[in-house]
UniProtKB/TrEMBL annotation:
Region forming the signal peptide: none
TM regions (residue ranges): none
Any one cellular-component term (Gene Ontology): cytosol
HAMAP family associated with the record: AIRS (MF_00741)
GO biological process, one term: 'de novo' IMP biosynthetic process
Superkingdom of origin organism: Eukaryota
Species whose genome carries this gene: Triticum urartu (Red wild einkorn)
Molecular-function annotations in GO: ATP binding; phosphoribosylamine-glycine ligase activity; phosphoribosylformylglycinamidine cyclo-ligase activity
Protein name: phosphoribosylformylglycinamidine cyclo-ligase
Length: 298
């Protein structure tokens, strides 16, 4: 979620947009896999992807790292990921806080929070107010589970009988372990989205996090409008197919929990849709805005 603050003075007539988040129980898998150098990317992504949905360019990022006793080598891997995430989103890692709390965390474990601040001109804010029936929904692909749904994903992993080092069952000729697939870093959409916005036609954006399509997309719309989503119109990644099959999870729960291969949804005018799809490849036309409430799957 992003928060707005009006700023006035001189020629600067903008909103400051702030966001804060963590990476949830994906940290548990970081501890179990030993993959720590990308969890910082996830941390940055969760906040900057939120604030860019308003059209804001991230300016700076702050992090909070808490552990029982500081392991410098481990912390350096995490911070390296945070630096990488800031570079991907073209913002500054302004600073942070490292807290040692003996006996509060298990040895080798830590917690993370991140805070991003950006700015957007008041006449350039993307707020969804101009969305109308017939506008097109375009999905930008995700890299995997990103940073939401890991409580359910970990339950499925326990049920599967596979370890994190076992190959992920998939039929696309690519070989990855279960751990690598689940730990794939969250895509940072900032540069791509700001470029698309700058060319016009974007009316609303939804970062697909906890709540999946079902909860996140309707938040963008004015009252009385909903979404028709055409299932099968985008590539569902093998990790989601595996999670659903092994966990025997209903379609409705999958679509309410995971991003299903689409991490950001753009609401665009009909006139701009074809151009944006062509210039943003890979991208998917996943549906349209309709009269009604919520999300209708067809």
């Amino acid at each position: 979620m992003a928060f707005f603050l009006s700023v006035r003075g001189g020629d600067w007539d903008e909103y400051l947009v702030a966001g804060t988040d963590g990476v949830g129980t994906k940290l548990k898998l970081a501890f179990e896999t030993g993959i720590h150098d990308t969890i910082g990317i996830d941390l940055v992504a969760m906040s900057v992807n939120d604030i860019v949905t308003s059209g804001a360019k991230p300016l700076f990022f702050l992090d909070y790292y808490a552990t029982s006793k500081l392991n410098v080598d481990l912390a350096e891997k995490v911070i390296k990921g945070i630096v990488d995430g800031c570079q991907q989103s073209d913002c500054i890692l302004l600073g942070g806080e490292t807290a040692e709390m003996p006996d509060f965390y298990k040895e080798g474990e830590y917690d993370l929070s991140g805070f991003a601040v950006g700015a957007v001109k008041k006449d350039k804010v993307i707020d969804g107010k101009n969305i109308v029936e017939g506008d097109v929904l375009i999905g930008l692909p995700s890299s995997g589970v990103h940073s939401n749904g890991f409580s359910l994903a970990r339950r499925v992993l326990d049920k599967s009988g596979l370890s994190l080092t076992d190959p992920l069952p998939r039929n696309d000729g690519v070989t990855t372990t279960v751990g690598e697939a689940l730990m794939a870093p969250t895509v940072i959409y900032v540069k791509q989205v700001l470029d698309i916005i700058g060319k016009g036609g974007v009316k609303g954006l939804a970062h697909i996090t906890g709540g999946g399509f079902t909860d996140n997309i309707p938040r963008v719309f004015p009252k009385g409008l909903g979404a028709k989503i055409v299932t099968g119109s985008w590539q569902v990644l093998p990790v989601f197919e595996w999670l659903q099959q092994v966990g025997k999870i209903e379609d409705a729960e999958m679509l309410r929990t995971f991003n299903m291969g689409v991490g950001m949804v753009l609401v665009v005018s009909k006139d701009a849709a074809d151009r944006i799809l062509e210039e943003s490849s890979p991208a998917y036309r996943i549906g349209e805005v309709i009269q009604g409430e919520g999300v209708q799957y067809v």
